[in-house]
Design goal:
heterodimer; A: alpha/beta; four-stranded mixed sheet; 10 helices; about 15% strand; globular; B: alpha+beta; four-stranded antiparallel sheet; 2 helices; about 30% helix; magnesium (chain B); hydrolase (chain B); CRISPR_associated_Cas2 (chain B)
Chain lengths: ~325, ~90
């Protein structure tokens, strides 16, 4: 498994001796084994030159950039190396065929809802009283199948999300992290800041995985394709937000790894301080490397790998080989 | 799989070995490297290094492969020169 590099320091990254070399402002020098790097997340102020970008392209390494407020800025998305006209055609055709687009969009919502339910049921067994919320979401899940347009489907998804987030205050036993309502751009409380940060990371991991397949990230199904941004990664991320992101949030808060001191609220909204951001990423990376026994593959796969497998399943669906069933945790 | 690699080559070829190994693995000590590679990456690395090595002059390269690090224990006495490269 290739590794992910997170750069928090400011400095310069360059090509040296046919590998990558990072020199930070305070003088630390490090060689990064280029053959074993999957992607680079840049949080600090890092200089690049064209020679480096060319090198990253030949090695198929994606670079994701985050700004001072830890917001996702964009990615250096190297030239597509899995260039399949056939796949793009199939993907676009599925988007344009109403029935097929709706079918796959429903699968994403269903996957997200079922994974959320698994988490709520887990905490319910642990003595948090979540029965009413579970039943509420289960009734919404029934509604998914009979939706006839993307708009109404999005509406059901919104209702599921709202009930699901409502359960967060029961799961997290820290009075600093209460949940009123989901606020974005900028988040208004600690928990919202953490959710926003975690979601934006899941989007980027999904984008990196899509890059390794023949899929085109510009054509999404649940999230409408538009002129501005990648949308397929947002779709796939729906399934993995609860599985990877939210569970990491509960872990860092309930174990006290992150507390209110890790946030900065002197600005317009609330953001994670670099220290908190790093702590969160360390736990998240651990979760991504953690392996589970896959029920159909019958072998150990990491959470990170699950995202790629999801891309392959979508490819199979688009090529009309298989029915697409979203990944649902089976524990 | 987890790899421990070390070499002993003539001074003339030291820097060539160092540069090639640095592209795949993490430097630990002089002429010692560690890291996780796939089977194919390892094959490529070995074939590249084999081109540099000169057997007649007594160069040697030794690689330890481990399926996982589960049953290993890393003991360091003195300064550990291996640094974190995931978070920098």
């Amino acid at each position: 498994m290739k590794e992910t590099v997170y750069i928090f320091n400011s400095g310069r990254i360059q090509r040296k001796d046919n590998t990558l070399f990072f020199e930070s402002e305070n003088g630390t020098k490090k060689f990064l084994p280029v053959e074993n790097i999957k992607e680079i997340f840049v949080f600090g102020e890092v200089d690049f030159n064209k020679k480096t970008l060319e090198f990253l392209t030949t090695k198929q390494i994606i670079v994701h950039f985050f700004n001072f407020y830890d917001y996702y800025v964009g990615s250096f998305y190297p030239r597509e190396h899995y260039n399949s006209g056939y796949m793009i055609l199939k993907q676009a055709l599925a988007y344009e065929t109403t029935g097929r687009r709706l079918k796959i969009a429903k699968s994403f919502v269903e996957g997200a809802a079922k994974n959320s339910l698994k988490i709520l049921k887990y905490y319910n067994r642990r003595g948090q009283n979540l029965i009413s919320i579970i039943e509420e979401i289960e009734s919404y899940v029934q509604e998914i199948e009979c939706q006839e347009s993307i708009e109404t489907l999005m509406h059901v998804e919104g209702k599921i999300k709202q009930s699901y987030y409502g359960a967060f205050k029961n799961i997290i036993n820290n009075s600093d992290f209460t949940f009123e309502k989901r606020t974005k751009k900028p988040p208004k409380d600690y928990l919202n800041a953490l959710i926003s940060f975690s979601n934006s990371l899941i989007y980027t991991y999904c984008l990196s995985e899509i890059y390794q397949t023949h899929l085109d990230p510009r054509i999404g199904f649940l999230h409408s394709t538009n002129f501005r941004r990648f949308s397929l990664n947002l779709d796939i991320a729906e399934i993995f937000k609860p599985v990877i992101g939210d569970r990491t949030i509960f872990a860092v808060l309930n174990k006290g790894i992150i507390d209110s001191r890790d946030f900065d609220n002197n600005l317009n909204g609330i953001i994670l301080k670099p220290s908190g951001c790093r702590k969160f990423l360390e736990v998240l990376q651990e979760r991504l490397n953690q392996t589970i026994k896959h029920s159909t593959l019958k072998r150990e796969v990491s959470y990170r790998r699950l995202i790629r497998l999801e891309c392959y399943k979508i490819e199979k669906f688009l090529m009309e080989d298989y029915e697409y069933k979203p990944f649902v945790m089976d524990w | 799989m987890f790899i421990i690699l070390y070499y002993d080559v003539n001074e003339k070829r030291c820097s060539k070995m160092l540069k090639k190994c640095r592209a795949y693995l993490q430097w630990v000590q002089n002429s010692v490297f560690e890291g996780n590679l796939t089977e194919s990456q390892l094959k490529r690395l070995i074939s590249d290094l084999a081109k540099i090595i000169n057997e007649e002059e007594g160069d040697s390269l030794i690689i330890y492969k481990f399926e996982s690090q589960r049953y290993t224990d890393r003991i360091v006495v003195g300064k550990d020169k291996k640094t974190d490269i995931n978070f920098i």
